[in-house]
Amino acid sequence: MRHQRHLPLCQRIKDAGGQPYVVGGYVRDMLLGRQPKDVDILVVGANDEVMNLLDREGSMVGVSFPVWLVDGVEIALARTERKSGAGYAGFVCVTGGVTLEQDLQRRDLTINAMALDPFTDRIIDPYGGAADLANKVLYPVGEHFGEDPVRILRAARFAAQLDMKISGALVRAAEPALAELMDEPGERLWGELEKALRTQRPSLFLAGLDELGALEIVLPEIAALKGRIQPEKYHPEGDAYVHTLEVIDRAADLGGDDEAMFAALTHDLGKAVTDDDNLPHHYNHEALGVPLVHQMCDRLRVPNGHRKVAAAASKDHLNVHRFNDLKPVKKVRLLMRLGAAQGDLLARRVVLASKADARGRGPLYADVPYEQGDNLLRAAAVLRTVKGHEFANLKDGRKIAQKMEQARAKALKLAGI
Fold this sequence. Notes:
With 417 residues, this protein is α+β, with helices and mostly antiparallel strands. The protein has helices at residues 7-15, 25-31, 48-57, 100-105, 129-135, 151-162, 168-174, 178-181, 186-196, 203-211, 215-218, 220-223, 240-253, 258-266, 285-300, 304-321, 328-337, 345-359, 371-383, 397-414; strands at 19-23, 40-44, 59-60, 67-70, 73-77, 80-83, 91-94, 115-116, 123-124, 137-138, 165-166. The chain has three domains: 1-129, Beta Polymerase, domain 2 (2-Layer Sandwich); 136-213, Hydrophobic Seed Protein (Orthogonal Bundle); 219-383, Hypothetical protein af1432, CATH 1.10.3210. 49% of the residues lie in helices and 9% in strands. The protein has a seven-stranded mixed beta sheet. The chain has a two-stranded antiparallel sheet with strand order 6-7. A two-stranded parallel sheet has the order 10-11. Strand 6 and strand 7 (91-94) form a beta hairpin. The longest helix is centred in the C-terminal third of the chain and has 18 residues, at 304-321. The termini are far apart.
C-alpha cells in the first residue's frame, strides 16, 4: 500500500475486530499507475468496539449512512442499498452483516468496484473492473446503476477523465434513470459538469452524455446546437455543436480555469436561436446567447462568477476577435465592459475562451496565433494608467465619463495599440 501512514489506522480497526479495505478511486488510480489522492476505507464486520474506535478518533460526517472522517480519511461501513423513492435520496441502507462483495455490487461502475487489502496489497475484483480499465471501456456493475440518475453524468465524466468508451450495457443500464434526471437538483448536475470541464478532454463528457441519452435533458442549450450549420469558409469543422466540442478541448489545452472553461462551453449558445432563413450565418448570435447563458445558470445553480464570465464571453467574443480593427474609443468601451478599469481577470478569462473559439475549427486552426488577445490585455494595462485626476473639478458625471473615455483612447493610441 503506497500510503503507509494509513496502515496504523487500518491495524487498529483490525485489532478492534473489523476488516478494513481500501476502496474507490485509490484502487483505480493505482492500477493506472497514478499517484492516488484520497484514501477511502471500507470496514466489513464492524462491531461495537470498531464503532467506539471510530467515534473516539474521528467525527461522523455521514447523513444517510455512517461515515467517519479520521485524519482526512473517510471510513464507511459495508452496506447495501435498496431503492425506496425518487432521486439520490430515495434509498434505504443496510449495514448489518454485509460482505465486501455485496458492498462493491452496489457501486456504479466496475472500475470503481474494486478493493485493496491494506496488509497484503491483494486486489479484490469480483466484477472485472481491472480488465475493463485495461480495455478502456466503462461497464456498470449491474442493472441498479440507473437507480441514482446522476450516475449518468458521473459515467460520462469518467469517459472524459480516463479517455474510456461507453459500453452498450452502460447505455441500457442508464435508460431507466433518464426520466428522473430532469428532476435532480441543479447543484448536483453542476457539480459533475464542473468536474468534467476540468478534464483534459471535456468534449468526451458531452459525447458521453449524448451517447447515454442525457445531453438534451442536462444541457438542452448545447444539444440545440446540433445541426446548426456554419459558414464552411470559417468553420470547416462542422456544425455549432461540433465546434463547441472542439472549443472546450482547446480551452483545456490553454489551461482555462473553471470560469473560462464554462465560458468556452457556452460562448455560442445563441447560434441555436438565430433566424433559420439566414443560415449558415448566425447574425447577432452573441447577444441572443446571453439570455440562454442565464437560463442555463439558473437551472444548474451555476456560481455567479461563472455566470458573469460566460455572459461576457457570449456577448463580446467576436469583438475580442476583431479587437485589432476596432477604433480606439470602441476598444475602450469593450475594455470597460470587461472590467479592465478594476483589473484584467475577467478580460483574461474572456480572451482565453475567445482564443479557444478561434482555434476550435479543425486541425488547421488548432494552433493559430491570437495576437488580438495579447493586444487586448496590453490595452487593459494601459487603460488602468489613466487616472483622470485632472477631471475631478468637473461636476457633471457624464462629462467626466466622456473625458475619461477620450483620455483612455488617446493613451491607447500613444501606446501603439
